[in-house]
Amino acid sequence: TYTGxxxxxxxSTVVGSTGAVTYSYSGTGAxxxxxxxxxxxxxxxxxxxxxxxxxxxxxxxTSAALGFTINKVALTITADNxxxxxxTAVATVTGAxxxxxxxxxxxxxxxxxxxxxxxxTTYTATTAVGTAGVTITPVTTLLTATNYTFTAxxxxxxxxxxxxxxxxxxxxxxTYTGxxxxxxxSTVVGS
Length: 191
Fold this sequence. Notes:
This protein is mainly beta.
């Protein structure tokens, strides 16, 4: 599993020559690496070939390739909690989604993550104030990282009261009659 350090087989069984043993590492499949005498550090699939030098009594020999894998580390991508007002549009909630990544190794940070997450939620614009268990979840399929995979974890949506508005409406010009006059209607949004 990826650690940031060089990894791969460094031992071999030699029958015959007492010459120096060298190793050649290269990527296989979709992994591009080498050939190199330096062991790889990044996650991927590799092979190593060992070669023993000739000595006074034996010729040089080369092993068959030995395949090995450096697995990716799983990061947890947790949606950050949000507080929204009642009636907030779902698109506003998911569009404001952010996440916190955890599980990095080798002192790495979220700078190694490419792409962006989208979000799904159990929230609706009619979810009542104070409803428990309302979640927002990151969709990680568009996130990329050479040495990491991604596991999504929910954040919490807290629904608070929305602000109401009221606007007085009606006629704004009156002629004096001696009776009480003025607007008596209003438009209310919210409560």
